[in-house]
Every structure is written in structure tokens, then in C-alpha cells.
Amino acid sequence: MAAAICCVGAGATMQLLARSARAPWPLGLVWVLLTATVAGASVWCTHFVAILAYQAGAPVTYDPALTMASLLIVIGGCFGGFALFVRARGGAWPAVAGCVIGLTISAMHYVGMLAFRIGGVVRWRPDLVVASVLLAVGLSALALAAARSQLGTRLAGFAPALFVAAIVSLHFTGMAALQVIPLTAWSPGAEDARAALALATALMGGMIIAAGIFAHALDTITSLDASARIDAFASICDQTGLPRRPLFEKQLALLLNNPKPGQRYLIVTTKLCHLNDITDIYGDEAGDFAIRLTADRIDRARQPGFFVARTGRSEFSAIGPIGDHEDIRSRAHLWRSMLAAPMVFGEHEIFLDPRLGVACFSPDGSSAENVVQHSRLALSRARKSPLEPVCVYDETFDALAERHHVLADNLLAALDNGEFEVYYQPQVWIADRSVIGYEALLRWNHPRFGLISPNEFIPLAEQTGAIVDIGAWVLRSACREASGWPDDQRVAVNLSPLQLRQPDLPEQILDALVSGGLSPGRLEIELTESLLIDDRVSAISILGRIRALGVKLALDDFGTGYSSMDVLRHVSFDKIKLDRSFVQDIETNPQSLAILHAMLELGRSLAIPILVEGVETERQMAILQAEGCRKVQGYLTGKPAPASAIAADRTVAIGLFRHAG
Ligand code: C2E
Ligand code: CA
Ligand code: CA
Do 136 and 106 contact (CB within 8 A), yes or no? Predict the structure, then answer.
């Protein structure tokens, strides 16, 4: 009985101690008092029940005052020790608090022994008395140190066992120190009375311990209940009964914080792409019906271990584990076909066109944002693609998509932030290598990605429409810059087909010329053959008005598309720029040389001067000269450089070359 009380009591004490440490001060004092009462009752009852089992070989009585005193001592001392433990911030303090507890239970034991009156001569072995106190103090100190280290996790481990050891070693070493020489003859007769006393003591102790445990349990249940109810209220969608985004995020965080080694997981996000159309056409009821039915289908398709939530109005997400060799793609397609099945609403058949974005991850090394972001990127691809309703996140593919997304977002702000700069690349006469003019080439110095090629960001600017503002800025900058150059040098500015759709483009150009102080004949607009793709009639008329200003037109990248000849028939150009693919291998490939020859011939028969782009070697230059080509642009004669660099070059070059006009 003593052993049972001791074990249960020590367990309860440590639980209550942990609860006391979590309670806000000074409410924590009440918890400390409860802990001390339970601890005191446990130690005291253990002691008395064990004493009742002790066969002294002589008649025994108990001093009531001292007996009560021993109980008060242990409760009071424990209160002090535990209060110290709860308030201490670490270091050696938990162990010090443990020493106080050890001394307290030792005091209780020996005061209890004073209350134990034996009809005989009593002798104590001092060495064992000292040993018992040292054991009690040492083990209690260890118990509380262990309790502190497990605080916040679980107290089920070593602390209660150490506390039991402290109580037990104190008691039995203490009893071994006691030697009794009976003076009166004694016969064991009052067994029943002792058993009754033991039972009563144990019951009383048990009740106190139970009261402590109940208090703790009740407290835990009510607080869990309350917070769970508040959470659940906000986080469950009442339409579908599925958790909402906050719970989904919690679940994801839980998974990432407790990784199972080697386990991989799947995150799926699905969007019902036609939901808005359905609500528009058939009304809100149809929309609600479609959402409920979809939630039902998802619930039925759910695999064990999967957590499903409604993460947006027309969006659902799921996370769950995947097997080592599982084919994610075919599983995702299976889900998609379950969700895509037509729904019958009244007399109508509804098609939702669900799109799925899937990403795999292993919890170590993934962050929640990354994981969610990946499935979103895959979903965004699935939504754009007419043929792929299910997309799995692909590092190279989607990371690039993300970069493009960021770049497209930043484009307009970049203009305000002065992140753009115009570089200039010389176009030269082959004969004396003097400069005819410069092509303006845009550069973007992105704060995160560094220098970005226009080949990457111009298409994005065209998609978002930002090219209109950016192009206008390039035009103004180029005119302003070129007005400071020698009179015979032109500036060539690239124009996107999108800019050609603005009816006021000629006025914009005039504006740039006037405010920059550049005469129209020194501006050249470079256009590619794609200019006629959309509205060719208006494009041709706008180009006519630009030409009427006196501005020159050049056909860029000639020969790379399918309609180069067609464009030449409809628009009058002042120059053709032959794409660099035509010079790349003229040194080694006779076929390429033959094509180049034909192209130059074409220019001659159309009476349009040709400039060859991308000339990189002296050998290419020599061949071009032999073929009768007169103008080139390329790394050989100058790379694109900031305006300041070409201005510096010019001061050096002055006097070396002189071009007649
Ligand atoms: P593009 O109009 O064909 O411009 C020529 C491109 O070839 C430039 O690339 C230039 O740096 C590069 N290049 C010049 N010489 C050589 C050479 O010898 N070897 C090689 N390998 N490359 C050479 P960049 O500056 O990266 O421009 C790329 C494209 O971006 C341009 O092609 C043009 O289509 C577009 N772009 C640039 N600036 C603007 C602009 O302000 N507005 C518009 N709409 N497009 C622009
Ligand atoms: Ca160009
Ligand atoms: Ca070009």
C-alpha cells in the first residue's frame, strides 16, 4: 500500500508541478499549494503506512501533536521548495529547490519517528541517519533538475521515478538506522487495529492525491475544449464541413515540424475554373451545389493519412504521404477525372473544369511558403494550359515561371526606380570603320536578379503592356542622348509591335524629338516583321505618318521569320538589318555564304541598303566586304555600352576617322 501511494503520489506531484510552472503568477501559487499538499500527503502517508508495517518487537504509541506537526512540516516545506522551483529561471536553481524538498522530507521522517513511541530502548546509527538524509536530498535535487529539463515536453519520464527513489531510500535507510531493544514483553495482538489505521491513512492520502489529479485533468480538459472550440469555429467551412485555410496551414506546419525520416509528401491544390461562369449563368444556388458536391467527391477520394481543406472560394487543397515508387501523375489524373465528372443541377449539366497543381516535398529543408508556392505555380501552369489540366511542379520550369512572374510584377516600378539604362552599340561603315550611328539597347539592373537581358524582359513587358511606357522612355532617352552626338550620327530605337497599336505613336515620337532636340532624320525606328501581324491597315498608316516626319525605318532581324518578303511589299524601309544567323558560319559553310550573297543581292535589287548584324571576327568582316556589304554592327566593332562610355570613346576617336556623310 505504501509503495502504491508513493508511486501514484510522485507521478501526480510531478504533473502538478509542471502545471504550476505553466500557470501565470500569482495564480501559480494556488497550483504550488495543491502540488505541495499532494506531495506532502504522499510522503506522509507512505511513511505512516510503512511504519505501521514495521515490527518493532515492542509496544508502540503515537504522539498526536508530533504526528500532525510532521504532516504540516512536509506540506509547508514542499510549498517553499516548489515555489522556488516554479519561480527559478534555470541554472542550478531547480536542484537547489530539490535540496529544500529533500531536507523537508527528511525532517518529516525524523519528526514522524519522534512521534513514534516505543516501549524499549531506542538507538540510532548516526552514519545511516546521515546517509538517509544525503540520499533524500541528492535524489530530490536530481528529480527536480530532471523535471526542469523535461518541462514543456513531458514529465512522465525520470522525475517521478527519482522522486520515488528519494522517498523510498530515505525511509528504508532511516529505518535501518533505528535499533530497538524491547523493555517489556510484547506480543503482536493489535494487528486489526493497525491494519485499520493503515487503511485509513492510505485512503486519506489516496483521496488527497486523487483530488489533485482531478483538478489537473479538469483544468486540462476545459482549457483544451475552449481553445479547440474557438479554433474550430473559425476554421471549419459550414458549407462543406471541411477545414479552412488556417487549419490547413496548421496541419502543414505540424507536418514540417515533425518530419518522419525518409517520408515524402504530396500537396495538391485544385481550382474549379468554371465556377464563376456557373454562378453567373445558373445563379448562386448552382455554385453552392457545385462546391458541396465537389467537397463530397474529394472526401470520398481521400486516401488514408490525407488532410483536405477548402482553401479558397473555388479552391481545395490536400496534403498527405506518398509511397516510394508511387506514380504521382497518374494518381493526380485519377483525382482530376473524379472531380471533372459532369454534375446534374436541375435540367442542366455542369462542367467545372477542375485544374490541379501538384508538388512533392520532404519536410526537412522545405518551408511552408515554399511548399504552398510550388503547388500554386504548378496550378497556375495547369490553368493556362488547354491540354494539361494537371501539372506537377517542376524545378527548372516553374522556378523560371516564378522569376518571370516577379519580373513582370516589377517592370513598371523599375521605370520609376531608375533601374533601366540605355546602352548604345555602334553601327559602322566597313570601309573605314567610322561610326554611322548607334542602336539603343535597353538594360535592366534588377535589385535582386542583377543585370537582365532584354530577351527575357521585353517579352514580359509586351505581355503586361508595360512596354508602352518603357518604350516611350527609351525613345525619349535616346533622342536626348543622340542630340549631343556629332550631326552625322543616327540613333536607332527598337519598337515593339504593341507600341505600333497606339494611334498617337507619331505624336509621341515627335514629342521625343522636340524635347530631346534631335532632328527627325537622325532617328531610326527598328521594327521586326511581326509588326503586321495584328491590324496591318492601321500599322501601315501609322508607319506612313512616322515616315512623313522624316524619321527612318529599319527592318530588323530580316530573314528569321516567315513573312519578311511580305512586309517588304507593304512598307517602305530605309534599311534592312540582316540577322546575325546569316553571318555566323560564313567562314566554314559555303551554303551560308551563298544565302548571304543572295540576301545582299536582294537588297541591291530593292535599292534598300543592308546592314549585317552580329559580326564578330575580322574574317567575317573581310568576307562581307568582298561580298559588297557596306555596313555592319557587331561585337567586333563595338559592344553595347553605356552612353558615358561611348562619349569617352568618341573624344579619343575624333580626328582618326572622318566620314563624308
Ligand atoms: P536586336 O534588336 O536584334 O539587338 C541586337 C542584339 O544582338 C543585342 O542584344 C546585341 O547586344 C546583340 N549583339 C550585337 N552584336 C552582337 C554580336 O556580335 N554577337 C552577338 N552574339 N550578339 C550581338 P540585346 O541587347 O540583348 O537585345 C536583345 C533584343 O532585345 C534586341 O534584339 C531587341 O529585339 C530587344 N530590345 C533591346 N532593347 C529594346 C528596346 O528598347 N525596345 C524593344 N522593343 N526591344 C528591345
Ligand atoms: Ca534591333
Ligand atoms: Ca536584330
Answer: yes
Helices (H), 116-183: 126-150, 158-176
Return the pLDDT at 660: 41
pLDDT digits (tens, 9 = 90+) for 360-370: 998 877 788 88
Residue nearest atom 41 in ligand 1 by C-alpha distance: 442
Closest-lying ligand to the alpha carbon of 525?
2
Cα of 608 vs its chain's centroid, Å: 58
Check pLDDT > 80 for residue 320: yes
* CB of 81 shorter than 6 A to ligand 1: no
Pocket lining: 616 vs ligand 1, CB cutoff 6 Å: yes
Strands, E assignment, 197-305: 264-272
Cell numbers found for residue 653: 576617336
Nearest by Cα to 232 from 309, 142, 137: 309
Spatial contact of 376 and 245, defined as CB atoms under 8 Å apart:
no
Lowest-pLDDT range, 299-308, 491-500, 623-632? 299-308
Q: List domains and CATH numbers for the chain.
A: 2-226 (no CATH), 245-393 (3.30.70.270), 411-660 (3.20.20.450)
Whether the full predicted model's pTM is greater than 0.70, yes or no, is no
What Å distances lie between residue 329 and 134, 309, 315, 317, 393, CA to CA? 67, 21, 20, 16, 11
Q: How confident is the model at residue 652 (pLDDT cuts 50, 70, 90)?
A: low
Coil, helix or strand for 439? strand
Single-letter residue type at 542: I
Q: Residue 200 is placed in which grid cell?
A: 485509513
Residue 611 CA: which ligand is closest?
3
> Residue 280 and residue 275: Cα distance in Å, rounded?
9
Q: Which amino acid is at 152?
A: G
Environment class of residue 226 by beta-carbon count within 10 Å: exposed (0-12), middle (13-18) or buried (19+)?
A: exposed
pLDDT digits (tens, 9 = 90+) for 15-30: 888 888 877 777 788 8
Please tell me which residue in 613, 616, 618, 627 is annotated as part of the active site: 613
Any atom of ligand 1 within 6 Å of the Cβ of 455:
yes
